[in-house]
Amino acid sequence: MNKSKPVENIRDILEKSKLQSYIGEKISQYEHAIQCADLALKAGAEEDLIIAAFLHDIGHLITRSEAKQMGDFGTADHDKIGANFLLENGFSERTANLVRNHVQAKRYLVATRPTYRENLSDASIETLKYQGGPMSESEIKKFEADPDFKDSLRLRAWDEQGKLENYKSENEEIFFRLIRARTPK
Known about the structure:
Elements: H1 6-17, H2 29-42, H3 47-55, H4 58-61, H5 78-88, H6 93-112, H7 122-130, H8 137-144, H9 149-161, H10 172-182
Helix pairs in contact: 2-3, 2-9, 3-6, 3-10, 5-6, 6-9
């Protein structure tokens, strides 16, 4: 992988993901990424958050030999793997933190909103088991103190909503331009 060209690296990774199903859903990994980023863009989110929405599942897509799997549900710790990958490729700490937090946001919402779990897809419920289940009280307090707490919850909402079949977007190049503008040349 060429660390001097993060946009091309990510474009290659995402191009391959067009053929990968989004774990347990009826869309591809790429379609999910585009939908989440579109939702962020339409919500008027700032650039780091749009990029995080676009790349939040990149940890499922990069090959790390040490990565454990969640049965048939992708890469365990994909949130942390993805955040580290983004930092290694020159993305901001904020973008990486939002990616790191999207699983924690699910755990938080399951712990604090009794009906939240009922609305999760079967795949998301299954992966929750591998991701630590609902947060404990101490984890809740720590997460609520994170400076990206509110935006992490927004990202999580887009993550859950971005699962529509036959979705079309005209914003793909906008997302790659944002990445290009926010990473080293």
